[in-house]
Amino acid sequence: MHKNLEKYGKYLLFLIPILPLLFIDGYFYPFVLMRAVFFRSIILIALAIFLYIAFKDKGALIHLKIKQDKIFVLFTTFVAIMFTTSIFGTHFYNSFFATLERLQGVVYWLFLLVYILLLKFYFRTSKDWMAFFKITILVSFVASIYAILQKFSLIDVFHSGIDRAEGTLGNAAFLGSYLLLAVILGFWLFLREQNKIWKYSILIINLFNIFVLYLTLTRSALLALLVFFTVWIFTGASSFSRKYKMISRGVLALMLILVVLSIIFRDYLANLDNDIINRLFVISLDSPVIKNRLLVWQGALQNIGNYFWLGLGMNNFDVLFNKYFHPGISEDWFDRSHNAFLDIFIMTGIFGLLNYLFLIVYSMWILIKNRAKDILLYSTFFALLAAHSVNNLFVFDTLNTSFILLAVLAFISFKFLLKSEEPQTGLKEVPKDKPWLKPILFLVALLIPLAFYYVVYQPAMLNKNTYKGVERILINKEASYKAFSKHLGYKFASNEIAFQTLTAFDILESNNPSVENKIRFKELTYNSFKEAHKFYPQDVRINMHMAQFIINNYSDIEKINEAIILIEEAKELSPNRPEVYYLLGQTYIIIEEVDKTIVVLKDLMERLPTLADPKFILANILYSQDKEAAQAQFNEAINMEYNKNVLNYQRIIEFYLAGEDYEAVLPYYLDLINLKPEDYRYKIDLAQVYYFVNDLESAVEQINIIQNNAPELIPQFQEAVDAILGAYNKSLE
Fold first, then answer.
1. Among 1, 259, 579, 588, which residue has the least CB neighbours within 10 Å?
2. Which of 658, 677, 696 is the last residue of a domain?
3. Cα–Cα distance between 567 and 546 in angstroms, integer?
4. What mean pLDDT, rounded, does the chain reach?
């Protein structure tokens, strides 16, 4: 019976490699939730089988050989450090369970720890490991086929809309990272496989995967693949025949020549009319993506003293990001630094980072130490760890890559630390009686149903109800209301649920709801934010969204004062975030305390003196009070570097229109229209500006454009249109 149970447990683990193919419709974050639920369910069932076997057979645990497996011990220590630093971190609950968007808290790492333990228990022969890795390669082939069908729209499959292959992973960078590991495993399996059918099947799969990896345009993964081949050739060259040494060195030389030529001719390649080549070679510090990440890294490293020893706890990177927010970042929210090593440092402190680095370095050392036993395994897996580390300088691991990486580490232990395969029957040593063992196993078994409820069922249920609440807001308001109401009182993910409740309310409000429904959903949204703010007091987004919701939907002074308190809290949490000051200033204007708005803007200008935006706003506020002071603020701002975005153009235009300086405002209207060509209301405004500068022909041209593309706007501005057309016709007489 034990053997049958072991077989079923092993088969369950053979299902793990299909994770990258799984996603589910009808849920938010369909690429994250389904994989987490599937992985955790498989691990809990396999763990239950393991516990039953260990409870019945006192010799079962001998197979684990914990003391000999230093890699497992190091990973266990890493998870323990992560757990400890999260306890002393910023928000333990968030660290432990994480968010629906990621589901990568301490729970995630505990499951990965159990995953390695189960691999050690169930996979006792090389045949088991080869089967697992072959399944991984076959699944990667299916994922690549899907990516091709998606990329070239060969059949109707899900596509996120970007012009890069993202496959079933929903993210091109994640697909690139996954295929990087799959290609390296496939390369190793091809070289060691004796069966010709399998050998050349794997070769075809690998070449196909490399092609799809290229289509992901994930620069870090492509760089890491180059690193892999370079390291592999240097580490494995001693085992090659003279012929293969020449070939490998020639291939390496060719790759390096191509890299050098690419660097030399980068500007030329970057200007070619080809999206793929453009992305690969347009690597500029002015690129928004690169600029954002560099600013995030710079801010994190400049404030290293705040997390050096114990970190901030898992999933609390956003606390640091918000506290030291840089206005030059064009993305408002970051929950990762997009550098796995920096993430670990920030979240677990120096001890966590050193432990993680030592885990990788020790695994590489084990490979070096045992290179004579299997030179191919040594060179391939050593290069794999090097390549993965290079890739992780620019991305972070997800479940799609973690399950492969940890399987590789467990396999290294199996080959070189455990030193011999277990016999199929019988044990070489008689286990000692351990009276304390069965009670511990029994207690762990009791935790499995609780774990299933809290980390499998609850995330799926809350996600499903949230999706239902948004989806049915127009077609079945009662069902939507009930779905959202079920969330009240749940601590987990209450912040994300509040945001989606607000989304549903905005949809409802834009579709002329009944007074009763508007009131019901308004109170539901308010209560959702109250719950979220109570459970996640350091989430700046909750404060800002809740404050804006109150300002938009409540008029009594008590509620407005509550919004002010929320914004002041947000200012404490993110003192360099301009939007917080703008929202606070807007709120003071609503309650007619303009002097306080001016104080808020001056506070922001003092904190961020190189930022032009608040100067534009202050100039417009001061215009009716002190035109000279307003003009001074405006002149200072207009001569500074400022973001050429819609908001700033609107601020500049507002100032010039207040002074009726139509000649000056004209170029800014043209720039604004270039940014928002689909918004034809700006063309109405532009037509009026042309009218005021006596360029009637251009004014009529704008009206004709509106008439042809958005005729429904004409009646809203009929008086202005009639005046322009009347003046134009009169000029023709």
1. 1
2. 677
3. 9
4. 90
